[in-house]
Amino acid sequence: MNASREEFKNTLQNQKAEIAKEIVDRQYSRARERWEPYGDTGYQKSLRDIQYHLEYLSQAAASSSPGLFLDYISWVKVLFARLDFSPSVLPTTLQLTRQVLEEKLAPEMFSIAKTYLDSAEDHLEHSPESLGSELEGERPLGDLSRTYLDLLLKGQRAQASELILDSVAEGVPVKDIYLHVFQRTQHEVGRLWQMNEISVAHEHYCTAATQLIMSQLYPQILSTEKTGRQMIMTCVGDELHELGARMVADFFEMEGWDTYYLGANTPLNDILSTLEEKHPDLLGISTTITYHLDKMGDVIQAVNESPDLSQIPILVGGRPFNIDPGLWQKVGADGQAADAQEAIRVGSDLVLR
After folding, report:
1. SS3 call for 336
2. Which of the residues in the chain have pLDDT under 70?
3. What's the farthest any 2 CA atoms get from each other in the chain?
């Protein structure tokens, strides 16, 4: 009898620390001169990174979604290239992962891992080592986006705020600012970090500044005539990339909904109690990180199993759902949206069905 994918995920996650240590130890024994200069700090980071690999592998397999793992491997390839790691590091890591899993797992479980690792090794040969900017070329509000990001990267938050507020005063719709400036520059900030061109501190500064500037637009956002509909928006897990979820909530506000944005890392019981108190027309849940799909699934299952809440439609979104368009069905949601604008359309349809 073949092991279920859920059993594979649980087994891999329960043993990930032990498996990661074995993989890293073999990496060091193969090329000690490469890794020893990084010292204990480097060793601990290697353990952490391998555990991330295993998290993504286990979740992709549990979701029957090879694309989730391949997208992650492509992301790692770009990151490693910009850190000046040898091109052999990631292929060697995958090979050693295969070796260790074959030794540690039952044959039927290893066969699941092998399928995903085989695909990843093939995929590596064709995936790029760098990523082009989303701000290049002719795009809506392209000049505004580039100027805005340039100001943020220079630490000129006040000037960036003034730029946005002046643009809105001159007639640029707030929704266009969100979609074509805030969303696109946040993607670009992530790309710049991945390409090792800015630090984590720069990334956090840009995100915090954008959140502050968004709050300055609330007088326009909240002035929309209300429709009587309500939605609750939340992120699952310790999400640091919650700006997209906040943008979705703001879009619903601009459509006349009353929204309750719970932010990141809200405990399941608190989400449920808020749903019971508000009983909204729609629940929106976002995650950027694939290995938070379990926590999203826990929320969805709890809502669907509650006699008082099961009629509330659930809309999901975030990077994993853009990679695998059918993933929303696998986690038990009622629909998914690729961005804030699509969330309005899909969410409204779910409420009216």
Report:
1. strand
2. 1-3, 239-240
3. 66
Residue 49 has which token pair?
């990174």
Q: So what's the pLDDT on residue 249?
A: 96
In angstroms, what CA-CA distances link 30 with 26, 80, 168, 215? 6, 18, 58, 52
The highest-level CATH class for domain 5-124 is mainly alpha
d(CA 27, CA 125): 21
pLDDT at 1: 36
Tokens of 141: 């509000």
| Cβ-proximal residues to 12 (8 Å cutoff; 6+ apart), any chain | 19, 54, 57, 58, 101, 105, 113
Q: Is 297 left (phi over 0), alpha (psi -120 to 50) or beta?
A: alpha
Strand, helix or coil for residue 191? helix
Q: What pLDDT is stored for residue 251 in this prediction? A: 96
> What is the number of other CB atoms lying within 10 angstroms of the CB of residue 120?
28
Distance CA 323, CA 305 (A): 28
Residues 224-352, CATH architecture: 3-Layer(aba) Sandwich (3.40)
Q: What is the pLDDT of residue 2?
A: 44
Burial class of residue 250 (count of CB atoms within 10 Å of its CB; 0-12, 13-18, 19+): buried
Within the chain, which residue ranges are assigned CATH 1.10.490.20? Answer: 5-124
Q: Are 276 and 308 in contact (CB under 8 A)?
A: yes
Angstrom distances, CA of residue 298 to CA of 53, 305, 310: 22, 11, 14
